[in-house]
Amino acid sequence: MKKVGCIFCRIAKGDIPSKTIYEDDEFRVILDLSPATKGHALILPKNHYENIYELDEESAAKIFVLAKDLSMKMKGKLKCEGLNIVQNNGEIAGQTVFHFHMHIIPRYKDDGQHIGWKQGKPTEDELEDVRKTIIG
Ligand code: 5GP
Ligand code: ZN
Question: Which of 97, 105, 113 is the best mutation target for the ligand 1 pocket, counting ligand atoms within 8 Å of the beta carbon and taking the most?
Answer without folding.
Answer: 97
